[in-house]
Write a structure and sequence with these properties.
The chain is 67% helix and 0% strand. It is mainly α and 156 residues long. It folds into 2 domains: 83 residues, no CATH class; 69 residues, no CATH class. Helix 2 crosses helix 4 and helix 6 packs across helix 7. The longest helix has 22 residues. It is globular, with a radius of gyration of 18 Å.
Length: 156
């Protein structure tokens, strides 16, 4: 078994085909935040945000389950399955986990405010040629490029 990552061009084509299949068979694109909202909706029926997710789109849960199973299978086939916290030499485990949790919370909060996640906006909206989605894609890449020097020190 190899520890190499998948070829990004092959993975991109595969992701495009999965997105096409989602449009054909489910009638909508991909996205992750709806699955979490769909799971929480029955637990908080008075919540205005979650109330819009009680329509029975349970296929989103299977989408996320497929992401988890597929990610594990990919790591297993590439020989990368291990219990570890990936971090640079200048950051401790607790700090790394705190930053990861904080980043996830910010992204989750942004998904709630935007009423959708980055994968749904970039993948599905971009595939539909939505102008706002393309503006977001360029802005996200620009922000990542500008922020990279700020976090690079933690990984060296």
């Amino acid at each position: 078994m190899s520890s190499r990552y998948s070829d990004p061009y092959v993975a991109g084509i595969a992701l495009g085909l999965v997105l096409l299949a989602a449009f054909v068979f489910a009638g909508r694109g991909l996205g992750a935040s709806g699955a979490f909202a769909e799971t929480l909706a029955p637990l908080a029926p008075a919540n205005a945000y979650l109330a819009s997710y009680t329509g029975g789109n349970h296929w989103l849960l299977f989408e996320i389950l497929g992401v988890v199973i597929g990610g594990f299978a990919s790591a297993l086939l590439a020989g990368r399955v291990r219990f570890a916290i990936e971090r640079g030499p200048r950051i401790g485990r607790v700090s790394r986990l705190a930053f990861a949790f904080a980043g996830g919370a910010v992204m989750g909060g942004g998904a709630v405010l935007a009423r959708g996640c980055t994968s749904g906006l970039a993948l599905s909206g971009g595939a539909l040629l939505a102008v706002g989605s393309w503006i977001f894609i360029f802005a996200a890449f620009a922000a990542g490029y500008l922020a990279a020097p700020l976090v690079r020190k933690a990984w060296r």
